[in-house]
């Protein structure tokens, strides 16, 4: 939170967009590692077989290739698991 607070303050006064991007990337990496250390992982989706235990289909689209039928072709919102328990299902688009 401290890093996010500092970033929020600096954005209002920032003149150098590259410095802002670098700061946000550092915060992202720090938060990502923090969550990973606590067993939180992103659910893999694109290219995976649609699985109702992990994915929530928001829509279906014609598959560009036959091997993508029944598979996730796009992710609308990432899903997460904590120690193999789903925290949030991945909201996905499925090929048909």
Describe the structure.
The protein is of the alpha+beta class. It has 2 domains: 2-37; 41-95, Head domain of nucleotide exchange factor GrpE (Nucleotide Exchange Factor Grpe, Chain A, domain 2). The chain is built from 2 helices and 6 strands. It has helices at 2-13, 17-37; strands at residues 40-42, 55-61, 72-77, 80-82, 85-88, 90-95. The strands form 2 sheets. Strands 1-4-5 form a 3-stranded antiparallel β-sheet. Strands 2-6-3 form a 3-stranded mixed β-sheet, with no helix packed on it. Helix 1 (2-13) packs antiparallel against helix 2 (17-37).
Helix content: 25-40%
Q: Enumerate the strands of the largest sheet in spatial order, edge to edge or round the barrel.
A: 1-4-5
Rg, Cα atoms, Å: 18 Å
User: N-to-C terminal Cα separation, in Å?
Assistant: 42 Å
Mean of residue pLDDT? 91
**Helix-strand category:** alpha+beta
Count of helix runs: 2
Shape: elongated
What CATH architecture of the largest domain do you see? Answer: Roll
- CATH superfamily caption of the largest domain: Head domain of nucleotide exchange factor GrpE
- Largest sheet entry: 3 strands, antiparallel
Order of helices and strands: HHEEEEEE
Q: What is the CATH class name of the largest domain?
A: Mainly Beta
Uncertain residue segments: none
Total number of β-strand segments?
Answer: 6
CATH fold category name of the largest domain: Nucleotide Exchange Factor Grpe, Chain A, domain 2
Total number of distinct structural domains: 2
Into which percentage range does the β-strand content fall? Answer: 25-35%
